[in-house]
Amino acid sequence: MRLGIAADHGGFELKERLKEELTDQGHEVVDFGAREYDPKDDYPDYVVPLGRAVAAGEVERGVAICGSGVGACVAANKIPGVRASLITEVYSAHQGVEDDDMNVMCLGGRVTCSALASDLVQTFLKARFKDGERYRRRLDKVARLEKLDEQDW
Ligand code: RB5
Fold this sequence. Notes:
alpha/beta, Ribose 5-phosphate Isomerase B, Chain: A, five-stranded parallel β-sheet, 6 helices, binds D-ribose
């Protein structure tokens, strides 16, 4: 799969490990930064370009990492077309794709160890959206929010 990955300083080390592992497994991994460890960098600078690439279909899925995974998730979900979630366990890593068509997985580099993160990413990449009527209906309701002006809420 062609996927994107991004991390700030809180997720840099985990990003580097996952990138190497995924590349070794034959995935095409596009790195949206950070390119080097910088303790003063900001997660939106890397997560937003990743999210835009996912929304535009330039990469199929994304993995966004910060210290907790929270900031990365908040930033990614601001981009229309992105369905991101902070993932810490295996069930949600596949169910989030199967039912909710999650296209960006967020991880906490200071929270989730690299062995578990690796399993979570594998599970995420193998999962496929079920595309049933009820799942599509719910996602259409969510997607409609992206088109509303604030006064329509
Ligand atoms: C950076 O120190 C940290 O705040 C950030 O990586 C992330 O955890 C935010 O949610």
